[in-house]
Specification:
Elements: E1 5-11, E2 14-21, H1 27-40, E3 41-43, E4 54-56, H2 59-70, E5 77-79, E6 88-97, E7 100-110, E8 113-123
């Protein structure tokens, strides 16, 4: 029996992607992998590949690169619905500053683990 979880990614309040993970969904497992991947790259405005390293050209690009990073063959990680709830439920919210689109507020949280919360401001490169 696995520790099941969901992950929902929102951009300016709109759901972009909902995922169901069948195993290792606890905060010290999948939760840390989510945060690690989020901090592994930088958000950019327009891909040019000259900065080196992992670049997220917007929130939609981040969401699909997250799937690419963790989906390995059949099973394990699935697309799901916004209403799906499991043992652990993660929410990644990214909201552009309406006055300055070179900045974005973010939060990464687990609904069942208050201490997991991380919030901050991203400077889009």
């Amino acid at each position: 029996m696995g520790t099941r979880s969901t992950t929902r990614i929102y951009e300016d309040g709109q759901l972009l992607l909902a995922l169901y993970k069948q195993y290792d969904g606890y905060p010290d497992g999948w939760g840390q992998e989510l945060k690690g991947f989020f901090h592994k790259g930088v958000f950019v405005n327009g891909f040019n590949g000259t900065k080196g390293g992992l670049e997220f050209n917007g929130v939609g690009d981040f969401a699909l690169l997250l799937v690419k990073e963790f989906k390995q063959g059949t099973g394990g990680l699935y697309a799901t619905t916004e209403s799906d709830r499991q043992e652990y439920n993660y929410i990644i919210e990214l909201n552009y500053d309406k006055n300055d689109y070179s900045k974005m507020e973010y939060s990464i949280k687990c609904l069942e683990e208050e201490s997991y919360l991380e919030e901050g401001l991203i400077e889009i490169q």
